[in-house]
Design brief:
Blueprint: H1 5-39, H2 49-64, H3 67-73, H4 75-82, H5 88-112, H6 116-124, H7 129-163, H8 170-180, H9 185-215
Helix pairs in contact: 1-5, 1-7, 1-8, 2-5, 4-5, 5-7, 6-7, 7-8, 7-9, 8-9
Length: 216
């Protein structure tokens, strides 16, 4: 049985859905985590070695677990949250746990690149710590943040394809079901090409947006 164009299109939109929803929740988790990793470190606005050590350790633990293992390990939690361990909705849960800490580290790196003179100048003008974070630190790092989020999105696209190995839906599931199990080379080629185009399109869009913001 050959795969139909409708099934390919459906798998494509499932992947888009998985990546979009996962990215949204991962940024909601990763952004504050990344900010906390910066402002609680030694010599920063809210220096707190205990909180920094705890956050850094938790982030490192999740980042050290391969996605395919994480996906299986949190099956009980996935079932609790979405009522199933297979399908597109179920794949979102491990994708968020996988990409949230990763995004936190990327955001941390971007914010640390901001010249310390910017913070010193803001403090000299009487800005509060929260004003420094949201009016100086983040705007100054915005171009870099966009590039980092772009990298995270590309990582999510790859992880969503791996989710297909355990029934996660999307292009990965299509490639496993038809391309691998039924030895359909054409399906494998089509899914790989689509994934390449998605990654290339995302990277190009991120580069253009970051460049535009940098100029402004």
């Amino acid at each position: 049985m050959r795969v139909s164009n409708e099934e390919i299109i459906e798998a494509f939109w499932e992947t888009i859905s998985m990546v979009s929803i996962s990215l949204l929740f991962a940024v909601i988790i990763g952004l504050p985590l990344g900010i906390l990793l910066v402002v609680t470190r030694k010599g920063h606005l809210f220096e707190n070695r205990f909180i920094f050590s705890i956050l850094s350790t938790v982030v490192n633990i999740f980042r050290s677990i391969p996605f395919i293992i994480l996906m299986v390990a949190i099956v009980p939690l996935t079932r609790l949250l979405v009522g199933s361990s297979i399908g597109t909705a179920a794949a979102v849960v491990p994708l968020v746990f996988y990409s949230g800490p990763y995004i936190a580290r990327l955001i941390e790196n971007s914010l640390l690149e901001v010249d310390s003179g910017v913070i010193e100048a803001a403090e000299a003008m009487g800005a509060t710590p929260f004003q420094i974070i949201f009016r100086f630190l983040i705007p100054e790092a915005l171009s870099s943040l966009i590039l980092e989020i772009t990298i995270a999105t590309i990582g999510l696209i790859g992880a969503s394809a791996m989710a297909g190995a355990v029934g996660g839906g999307g292009l990965g599931d299509l490639a496993i079901t038809y391309g691998y199990q039924r030895f359909d080379t054409q399906v494998m080629v089509i899914t790989v090409v689509i994934l390449i185009l998605m990654v290339q399109g995302m990277q190009t869009f991120g580069n253009i947006l970051a460049k535009k913001i940098r100029r402004n």
